[in-house]
Amino acid sequence: MPKTPAWGRNRLFLRAALGFCALTLQPVAARAQTMPDLVTRDRLRVCADPANMPFSDKAGEGFENKIAEIVADELKRPLHYYWMPEGPGFVRNTLGADLCDLIVGYASGSDIVDHTNPYYASTYVLVTKKGGPLDGVDRLEDPRLKGHRLGFIAATPPTDHLLRLGLVANAKIYDLLVDHRYSSPSRDAVRDLQSGATDAVILWGPIGGYYAKQASPPLTATPLIETTRPTFVFRISFGLRRNEPDWKHELNAVIAKRQKDIDAVLESYGVPLLPIQAVAPERHGGMGEAEEIQ
Prior knowledge:
The protein is of the alpha/beta class. It is built from seven helices and twelve strands. The chain has two domains: 16-120 and 234-278, D-Maltodextrin-Binding Protein, domain 2, CATH 3.40.190.10; 123-223, Periplasmic binding protein-like II (D-Maltodextrin-Binding Protein, domain 2), CATH 3.40.190. The strands form two sheets. Strands 1, 4, 5, 6, 7, 8, 9, 10, 11 and 12 form a ten-stranded mixed sheet that branches. A two-stranded antiparallel sheet has the order 2-3. It is elongated.
């Protein structure tokens, strides 16, 4: 991720530039008139990546695991996971195949799934060494970045701005689409910063905030401000199949009731939070199935 993320998983959350075609989950109109919710009512079935910290893993250590536990607790249902590495085909082969009913982190406004009300908003961050020459930089236009070696994930929103500003030639670029069971480009980027191979790295906020907090000594994750497109700011919601209004209303009620508990989880993982109401709704039509914002 917006998982990017968001992906996201940014799920995060990603972009049409990835070059993958999204498979729509919306039934034809005739079926939509009569098809009941397919949601399993005896348990909460969650689609998740088995090795994609800080979002989720099989040990239940990710913040999306903790949020899924909050949802299961509120619904009074046992929690069950369907595990699959995120990437092309993730939505089609999990949610779209009715093997699960919920993706915990998905960029609001993306067309491939329906989504609940957003439960947090975040932005990309610049991760730097505390007290270093780039500590506190909050705009890519800052002249202090000139001549420094930056790290960033390929094909994510900052890429366009880095190209525009001439900051790519000296940069270190990390792969976007990987199997997180075997590789973690974001973790590698932070390690390169710690070793001095780069001077700063640009990451999706939940990822950058988590690794900055975990680092020893701790690093600084400064939210980046960008007023032109592509945006750095995304609202994150639950992803679900289309045409399941009862399920959507049920999840919206959970978010409204347990928002403070969700916020506490996000803050404990170092996720930089923005006021949801202050973030303009975005439409991310055409996003591929590698939906996590990285």
